[in-house]
Amino acid sequence: MREEQITNSDETNRRKKKRRIRKRIFNKTVSVFFCLTVFTLTIVGCAPQRNGSGGSDSAPERQDGSTDLLQADKEQSEADLNSEKADSKPEKADSKPEKADSRPEKADSKLELKNSESVQTDTESEQSDTGRTDTGSDQESSKPNQTDSGQSNSISVDVTAKNVVVMKADTGLVLYQKNGTERIAPASTAKMITALTVLDICSAEDEVTVGTEIMLMHEDSSRAWLNQGDTLTVRQLLIALLLPSGNDAAYTLAVYSGRKLAGDSSLSDVSAVDVFMTAVNEKAGELGAGNSNFVAPDGYDAKGQYTTAMNLAILAKACLDEPCIAEIVSDAKSYERWTGGREVTYQNTNKLLDPNSPFYYPEATGIKTGTSSLAGASLISSAVINGETYISVVMGAASDDERFQDSIAIYDEIKTLDL
Prior knowledge:
This protein has eleven helices and nine strands. The chain is α+β, with helices and mostly antiparallel strands.
């Protein structure tokens, strides 16, 4: 009996143990199945997100969120794209008015140049025009320009000279030009800048003794017939320079001024001239005549020496603004007793000033003639018409007579205008 109870008890324990084992196996199986299910769902949930913005620990929840987010992003992108397209169209429309606005500015600049073409002082601009004939402003120069009041402020005139500029002295307004920026030889018109530079360095009343420097001029030069040992003032030398166009006076002034500028009275004649010519070109640049290079104080033809009709108009205006020079160049004749006792009378080579000349022009007030092989016959003149001063630059005329005829034709044309 005791043994049967033990046997039944053992059987019961074995059954309980088997049930526990089966339960454990079931639980493990369920756990494995659950894990496999979770793992599978995780993989399925992560797949679309890898093509999106990245992975996540909560795949099933994120999957729906990602789908919504992608859809929202797509809708937002389409909205932004449509917005950008809509915005870009007004910008293009706005850019067109800007171009339209810029056109009137260009038109205005051309109009201003045409209506008030003034003397060019920009060296780079003039150098770029060098060698051009009847182009740009030269073509427009013969066309009537209009001022704000509607009055004509340009002239049309038939002249034979190669290079011509006509300018209103007080404003610098150019009324006419023909090859005005072409580089040309200056001949004796260079004596204008020589005179201006001398007065920057010396007093008009300085006394000067003529020396060996007069031997530097060429044998065929125009001269004032200075002699070594003559003593006269700088003003009297300027008269000898500008009226008879004395090349000897040009070298005496250059050497005296060069030595004074260098502070060395022992400088050789040639060295003193070099110092002076450096000052001459600096002066020309300061005045706005930078498209010029002067080599000799008398303007005699020389390699590397050039100027333009426009630059000469600038120098002429500066001469009229200098009282000492303006007074000298307006005289048809000059009588002087030099400090050394010598008496001289000079006749002005500008026949516009000579009452006995067929080219006499009562309104004329100066300024300087010039003639050389390279420059031809030239005349830079001035005249007062209706209370206004005008400057005429005529370079490269075929003859002495034609330079005066061209100048008279220019002034007669100015008289017909209501300026």
